[in-house]
């Protein structure tokens, strides 16, 4: 299977790694720049974006992550991972994320979502939002895949997919499968 990474500075990277492994990928935890060598894709998990940002700075990971994305490798960011990709953090996605946008911890909620190009004509995806961000602003190259009450919660820009929720904890692996399909497609290209 393809070799993909999961940024493992903080957050629930273990659940992503298990899901990707179950889908036939080989998974490497990424903590330092050298861990990116040879990877064919990368997941940035949910967690706490301030802590993750400090870890990225401490390990000198910002520039290597930006170069990895610029080389066209597929990326998947979820929740805090979406925040990490935005304009004010790594600047990989042309979006501005608003943190904790749905309110405080008590505003964590679940919602059934259709994701353009991912759930297709199939069943909607159960999306778990935990102190989730939304996309407050985005540039013209950003495709909106889903919204909740008019607030954007899933986007794609080129090879980068990002969602506000936690797809790794519901057992629905379609988002991870879509990410791996991009990885495999790029491999065959
Ligand atoms: N609220 C967190 C942050 O701002 C993100 C929450 C999550 O990843 N579940 O970083």
TrEMBL record:
Keyword line: Glutamine amidotransferase, Hydrolase, Lyase, Pyridoxal phosphate
Keyword Lyase applies: yes
Source domain of life: Bacteria
Enzymatic reactions: aldehydo-D-ribose 5-phosphate + D-glyceraldehyde 3-phosphate + L-glutamine = pyridoxal 5'-phosphate + L-glutamate + phosphate + 3 H2O + H(+); L-glutamine + H2O = L-glutamate + NH4(+)
Lyase listed as a keyword: yes
Amino-acid positions noted as binding L-glutamine in the UniProt annotation, renumbered to this chain: 47-49, 99, 130-131
Catalytic residues (UniProt): 79, 166, 168
Gene Ontology MF terms: glutaminase activity; pyridoxal 5'-phosphate synthase (glutamine hydrolysing) activity
Self-association state and partner proteins as the record states: In the presence of PdxS, forms a dodecamer of heterodimers. Only shows activity in the heterodimer.
Function of the molecule: Catalyzes the hydrolysis of glutamine to glutamate and ammonia as part of the biosynthesis of pyridoxal 5'-phosphate. The resulting ammonia molecule is channeled to the active site of PdxS.
Family classification: Belongs to the glutaminase PdxT/SNO family.
Name of the protein this chain belongs to: Pyridoxal 5'-phosphate synthase subunit PdxT
Gene giving rise to this polypeptide: pdxT
